[in-house]
Amino acid sequence: xxxxxxxxxGPQLERxxxxxxxxxxxxxxxxxxxAGIIGLLGSFFMDRFDRKYSLLFLYAGFLLGTFACALxxxxxxxxxxxxxxxxxxxxxxxxxxSIVGDLTPLEKRSETxxxxxxxxxxxxxxxxxxxxxxxxxxxxxxxxxxxxxxxLPILAFNIKMVPNVTGHLNHxxxxxLTLLSGMFSDRNQVTAHIFxxxxxxxxxxxxxxxxxxxxxxxxxxxxxxxxxxLVGGFCTLFSAPIFGRWADQFGQLRFFTAVTxxxxxxxxxxxxxxxxxLYIVLVITSVMFILISGxxxxxxxxxxxxxxxxxxxxxxSVNSAIQQLGAGVASYVAGLIVVKTASGAYQDYELVGYxxxxxxxxxxxxxxxxxxxx
Length: 374
Known about the structure:
The protein is mostly helical and 374 residues long.
């Protein structure tokens, strides 16, 4: 939710601070770039601790970064705060996925991933619309303050409910450099890293500028932007667990291929939209969210299964880092491609769509080269 709320705030931030699409793209990418860099460093020590304690430490730092965003009063301060938040957020995501991989058998892993994706959808259903409401009523800082306050009881919940995860400590490598060198000499793990970069290019390049494009080109008001995330998130709240079960039933690779091919249709349509009826646009964006979340479920299952449990924490830290860097590159490249005209309209968004489609097709080919080892 913390990551998602930044993108719909684009029109408001551009208006308040007079920033360009490129500067806004950097603001979105700052979170992912810092998450990527710290994630690479995290690969050296993530498998050396109980995953529960890692989770608690990272989540506490994540909340502090979110409060720093709420206190920012300039573009530069917000940029630094987003970097700080991303530094904790990237490792936090890797830790969650490592816990899932350690505690869930392979034959049920996609279903578990589907449940996690449903949690992301729940954040869209409630968090993004409510965050936009707070931003419109009290200023753009209000959503970050709200997130920080809501996160405090969740931290307490994690302390009480999350089990200790220590089984991987029995296989701790003596030298952390061994993990990194072994990772990049393992063809299967390298393939997984390339795969996640292509997935990020295939979606975040388009998602980053959905909100500004809808306002400037399609005719949405800033208040109506919340409907995109409300309806799309509500749909994926139900579709994600179902897609997870289907991926387990039909096979992750087969299901990923089918859903990815279907997702190319709304990706193309959205990046070519003229001014049109609000309800038609909501159908198109909702289908895109359903299919994008649907393809990431088997994708993450394949990635977490491409490495043995005793190496999973460090591997997922690196993979999460590469994922964040890939998302950051996608957002920044999209900002370089998209041009805002004197009239306020956005041009060349369709080129971003072609980039996403190409990356998605290549991801299908790369996915066929990965093999499950756990």
